[in-house]
Amino acid sequence: MPIDEIEKKVSDRYAKAASTGEQMCCPTSYDMANLKSFIPEEVLKISYGCGTPAGLNTVSAGETVLDIGSGGGIDCFEASRLVGPTGHVIGIDMTDTMLDIARKNAVVVATNLGYPASNVEFRKGMADAMPVTDNTIDLIISNCVINLAPDKRKVFREMFRVAKPGGRFTISDIVADQPVPQYLVHDAEKWGDCLSGALTLTDYMAGMTEAGFVGLHLIKSSPWQRIDGIHFFSVTLTGYKLPAETATRPARYATLRGPFSRVV
After folding, report:
1. Where residue 155 falls among pLDDT bands split at 50, 70, 90?
2. Where are the beta strands (DSSP E) in the chain?
3. What's the rounded Cα separation, in Å, for the pair 34 and 174?
4. Which residues touch 9 (CB under 8 Å, ≥6 apart)?
5. Could you write out the DSSP letters of every residue in 45-84?
6. Which of 23, 107, 251, 262 shows a CA-CA span of 20 to 30 A to 11?
7. Domain residues for 12?
């Protein structure tokens, strides 16, 4: 299936869900009682994540956070609370309907949090071509979105580009226990269900490593669905971009004059 067709099918599916309030099957673990205290119901009912990356004690006050595939804004708004009024949150999404809802509610959330102005902005863009400046993001989050991208390695490279030296990511997504067969890859409906584009965990982490991230760690894995013998899991991963001084530090060599019985 051509990439542009996949992107259109996914965008149309989520635009329809946002407009109708359709409930989509994604495994989530939000603390709704807490979120309802400052996030409008309109946002909560169109949340389609598979984890809670912004709520895993990974966000610090004053940081700049990027949410890839921000949808109605639920994770951006939780990050907004955690970074405080001096922090900044950027949400990227390709669906106009989602962006409209998120932007409309940004001011409401800021008021509910007691901020003088919203510290969240929503930009239209694609995960593999993000409208974000190089080396500007402290923390990248994403919630059940990267599996929807046809070229995930390009997304991983984009993440590395925008992350600050020393920056990090916390990503929740869907993976499979084996490569997804071609009949599923070409099923447009299953793309929107977060199935057709799922990588194996090994391939997912390999793509992150190839992009330049280090210290990858699987912090959570939960069974989700089984289709035709393929097991799909909701996982949360973390990783880091090396600080500039570490990445550019020249190699040092030493010449040892022997003989030695051993060198330790």
Report:
1. very high
2. 64-68, 88-93, 120-124, 137-143, 163-176, 199-200, 214-227, 230-240
3. 25
4. 188, 191, 192
5. TT---SS-GGGSS---TT-EEEEET-TTSHHHHHHHHHH-
6. 107
7. 3-248
- The answer as to whether 257 is a domain residue is no
Question: Which residues are CB-contacts of 195 (< 8 A; sequence separation ≥ 6)?
Answer: 174, 180, 184, 187, 225, 227, 232
Q: Which residues contact 211 (CB under 8 A, 6 or more apart)?
A: 153, 156, 157, 159, 160
User: Is the separation of the CB atoms in 242 and 214 below 8 Å?
Assistant: yes
Please count the structural domains in the chain.
1
144 backbone dihedrals φ, ψ, rounded to 5°: 60, 45
* pTM of this structure: 0.84
pLDDT of residue 258: 42
Whether residue 70 is predicted with pLDDT greater than 90 in this model: the reply is yes
Say how far apart CA 126 and CA 262 lie, in whole Å: 55
Q: Distance (Å, rounded) from C-alpha 9 to C-alpha 7? A: 6
154 or 29: which carries more pLDDT confidence? 154
pLDDT at 96: 93
Whether residue 251 is predicted with pLDDT greater than 50 in this model: the reply is no
* Backbone phi and psi for residue 235, each to the nearest 5 degrees, phi listed first: -125, 155
Whether cis (ω within 30° of 0) applies to the bond prior to 181 is no
CATH code: domain of residue 231 = 3.40.50.150
* Average pLDDT of the chain to the nearest whole number: 85
Q: What is the pLDDT of residue 260?
A: 40
Which two tokens mark 256? Answer: 């040892």
CA angle 245, 62, 77 (to 5 degrees): 125
One-letter amino acid of 125:
G
Q: Is residue 256 part of a domain?
A: no
96 is a domain residue: yes
